Amino acid sequence: MLLGLLTILTGHVLTDYLLQRKYLGKYKKRSIKGLVLHTLSWTLSISPGLIILKNFNICIFIFLLLSHFMIDWCKNKLFPLRHGLCTPVNIIDQFLHLVSIALTFIIF
Fold first, then answer.
1. Residue ranges per domain, the chain?
2. Which residues cross the membrane (predicted)?
3. pTM for the model
4. 49 pLDDT exceeds 90?
5. With contact defined as beta carbons under 8 Å apart, do 20 and 26 qualify?
6. How many CB atoms lie within 10 A of CB 7?
């Protein structure tokens, strides 16, 4: 179980922070294609952890893809300026992403 959770957390940190530092972070704010690319890479990066935890199917994949897209799209539209790691906007954003992952264990 720990390996699965660490895999999910690692995938999340890699795609929601490290890969967005420059190009992808700017691209997802300017373009729906960039946001789709980001959400797809995020969903693919946490999927191995869900597979390890035996909590993965196409419905979960689509749910996570759409929820991450909607959370980030709303954040970009409501708060278009760049935010630091510890700002309320970013903390709420990350909380909602973690809730969406947790919901896959409850709903599916």
1. 2-107
2. 39-66
3. 0.91
4. yes
5. no
6. 19
